[in-house]
Amino acid sequence: MKFPRSKKLIFVNNKGGVGKTTLAFNCAVSFAREGYKTALIDLDPQCNLSRLAMGEEYYTKNLFSEIEKTIYDVLRGVIEGGSDINLAVKFLPVKADKNLLLLKGDINLSVYEGLLSTAYGQAASGQPIGYFQTSAIDRFLREKGLNEQIDIFIIDTSPSLGLLNQMILLGADYFVVPMMPDAFSVQGVENLGTVYEKWKIQWRNSAKALAGNTETKLVLPGDPLFIGYIVNSYNVYGKQPIADHRAWMEKIPEKVRTYLSEKHCRNGLVEESWKNPLHSIQDYGRIPAKCQELGVAIFDLDPALVADNQQGTKENIEKSKEEFSNLSRNILKVLSAY
Fold first, then answer.
1. 312 DSSP β-pair partners
2. What predicted TM-score, i.e. pTM, was given to this entire model?
3. Could you give phi then psi for residue 228, rounded to 5 degrees?
4. Domains of the chain (ranges plus CATH)?
5. Does residue 43 contact residue 74 with C-beta atoms inside 8 Å?
6. N- or C-end of the chain: fewer Cβ atoms within 10 A?
7. Is the predicted pLDDT of residue 321 greater than 70, yes or no?
8. Which DSSP string do the residues of 78-132 spell out, in sequence order?
9. Where does the AAA domain start and stop, copy by copy (predicted)?
10. For the purposes of burial, counting CB atoms within 10 Å of the CB of 110, is it exposed (0-12), middle (13-18) or buried (19 or more)?
């Protein structure tokens, strides 16, 4: 194990379609290649990360497998009552890589979110049952991280600002924000920063303040660290971002500083987290769609499997190796330092 304890990192954005699932998967593959035992945790009821990690054919055949358990099986005892998290649920190996694992998502995860509407209120008023229910996912990850020597949990979430994502965030160690160079992404930064600050303050002033003698493991820490943003899918002309995307890329840092870095960073990371993105990833056209079908990272795709198989496709795949190597290295540098 490369870290003293497991690190829980969320890829999150209030704006959908920014490529957070693709980025999370490709970064996880990169981490695993660097020797970090990495577990993909699919906490989006859409289950896109599960599909990407498995490949479309395998995923479709095993969608309702009784053998391969999901996040719902982990939470079943808490949701249905009378029991606790199921620590016997095993992670699935991804592509026979001993360092890359998956906990499948489940469309029924929304049932747990329904339970949280009551549980959060109970925790906020200091009731033990509320802490027990709101901490379920976090407790599972911490126990599995310790027992299975997981270095990094990569957590994928939906774009929602609902209670499920609130509990996921309050239990996380770090969060990274993928975005595209456009107006909606800038608005998403404002939404995230403002809402996350409210969530953290409310939790600190209610549930944490009233915890009393409640076991620490039942009380979500409630203070994840923003480590940076990723500019994704910029269009290229003349080997640089097109003019419209460059204009938005110049506006993003100030928004990140105001709404994310100054509210959700600390120590020496504040300035570092907004001045420059963790990395900028170009638009790879049809390549990501093919990767989703096959369940492979962008930089592992065989160019011959892309319909056009042109020189530009090969060059893009080669470029992706450099981009994701730099991105994963930058993230790992922060995780090691903080």
1. none
2. 0.94
3. 150, 180
4. 7-66+92-106+146-337 (3.40.50.300)
5. no
6. N
7. yes
8. HHHSSS---TTPPPEEETTEEEEEEEB--TTHHHHHHHHHHHHHHHHTT-HHHHH
9. 7-200
10. middle
